[in-house]
Amino acid sequence: MPPITLPGIDAYAEAHSAPDPAQLAGVAGNDLGMGHLVSGQLVGGLLRMIIHSLQPKLILDIGTFTGYSALSMAVALPEGARVISCEIDPERAEVARKHIAEAGYADVISVRVGPALDTIAAIEEPLDLVFIDADKPNYHNYYSATLPKLAPRALIVCDNTLWRGEIIDADSTDPDVQALRRFNEAVAADPRCESVMLTVRDGVTLIRRV
Ligand SMILES: C[S@@+](CC[C@H](N)C(=O)[O-])C[C@H]1O[C@@H](n2cnc3c(N)ncnc32)[C@H](O)[C@@H]1O
After folding, report:
1. pLDDT digits over 29-76, tens only?
2. For strand 58-62 and strand 150-159, is the pairing parallel, antiparallel, or unpaired?
3. What pLDDT does residue 7 have?
């Protein structure tokens, strides 16, 4: 993925940030030949910083893929806390379950196979942290479905909200760009929340309910 920052800046930031925890070795999507889909070291580190402060009990990870984001967060969780991770593709879910079991987190992370919106609808406990990183046309649906379920100090973290910088290309006809643009505009205009869009890697938006 081409960076949205100056050439070399992401590599510099990665070199001067905590490395991926050892439990993530081999989880970065390469076994499925799609390493570019994982959220990566900087986003994983940002999520762990949030978790250390927030001390969440329940995290929702929307978009499991190989389990990289779920494991990135699980390693920082306090005792007794859990991650529910949503994946529509059964093959990817199996790969993720294998990685999660090998890392010793099978009791902490539950991978739910099926459309994430169905998984979200079945969750009754308050969500302390939500990481949205699945199909872009559903970002607004994931936001709408999780907002009413948030615990008082919860955060929603959304990946890829600047989409390789193409988000500001007014001529883009890419359906993902158009969906992300509609999502970004809706969040910025929603009086129920406060948000900040960070130019980290591919764009990361943090949202809290006010
Ligand atoms: C970008 S990848 C997730 C990467 C992961 N969060 C990480 O950091 O390693 C997006 C994943 O969302 C899954 N996905 C797409 N549509 C979905 C849906 N409707 N419900 C659940 N998962 C979905 C895809 O199969 C894919 O594995």
Report:
1. 666 678 778 899 999 999 999 999 999 999 999 999 999 999 999 999
2. unpaired
3. 87
- In the reported structure, the alpha carbon of residue 172 is separated from the centroid of ligand 1 by a whole-number distance in angstroms of 23
Q: What is the mean pLDDT of the chain?
A: 95
Does residue 84 carry a pLDDT above 80? yes
Q: In the structure, which protein residues have their CB atom closer than 6 angstroms to any atom of ligand 1?
A: 37-39, 63, 65-66, 68-69, 86-89, 92, 115-116, 133-135, 138
* Residue ranges with strand state E in the chain: 58-62, 82-87, 109-113, 127-132, 150-159, 193-198, 204-209
Q: Is 151 helix (H, G, I), strand (E, B) or coil?
A: strand
Distance from residue 5's CA to the centre of ligand 1 (Å): 24
ipTM summary value: 0.99
Q: For residues 163, 42, 159 and 76, what is the CA-based torsion angle, rounded to 10 degrees?
A: 170
Q: Say how far apart CA 151 and CA 128 lie, in whole Å.
A: 5
Written as one letter, the residue type at 2 is P
- Name all domains of the chain by residue range, CATH numbers in brackets: 9-209 (3.40.50.150)
Report the separation in Å between the CA atom of 90 and the middle of ligand 1, taken as the mean of its atom positions: 11
133 alpha carbon – ligand 1 mean position (Å): 6
Tell me the chain's radius of gyration from C-alpha atoms.
16
